[in-house]
Amino acid sequence: MAIAQSPFLNGVPELLVLRLLRDRDMYGYEIVQAIRDASGDVIGFAEGVIYPLLHGLERDGALITRRQTVNGRSRVYYSVTSRGADRLAALAAQWHSLHHTISDILAEPRHA
C-alpha cells in the first residue's frame, strides 16, 4: 500500500530524489520505480509528482540533465550538482532532526 498521498510526506519526494541521484544518474520513470523498490512499495510517487519536481530542481541548479538515446528512445538523465548535494545534506539533516524529535515525543510523555 503506497502512502504517497499522506501529508506526512511533504518534502520527502525531493529528499528521496536527491538521495537516489547522488549515487547515479537516472531518468524520470527510473526514479519513480527506484523509490517504489527501495521502500518495498510503501512509498510511491506518480510521474506527475516526480517530473515537476525534477524540472524545479533543474531550474534551481540542484540538477543537470543530459539526453541519451537508449534502444531508440531518447531519455533525459538527471545528475546532482554541488548545489544539489548541499541541498540534500540540509534536507537530510532537517529530516533526521525531525525524526528524532517526533520519536522522542512518541516514546516518552513529557510532564510539566
TrEMBL record:
PANTHER family: PADR-FAMILY TRANSCRIPTIONAL REGULATOR, TRANSCRIPTIONAL REGULATOR RV3488. This is PadR family transcriptional regulator, regulatory protein PadR. Coiled coil: none annotated. It holds the Pfam family PadR. It comes from Devosia crocina. Residues 17-89 form the Transcription regulator PadR N-terminal domain. InterPro entries: Metal_resp_DNA-bind_regulator (IPR052509), Tscrpt_reg_PadR_N (IPR005149), WH-like_DNA-bd_sf (IPR036388), WH_DNA-bd_sf (IPR036390).
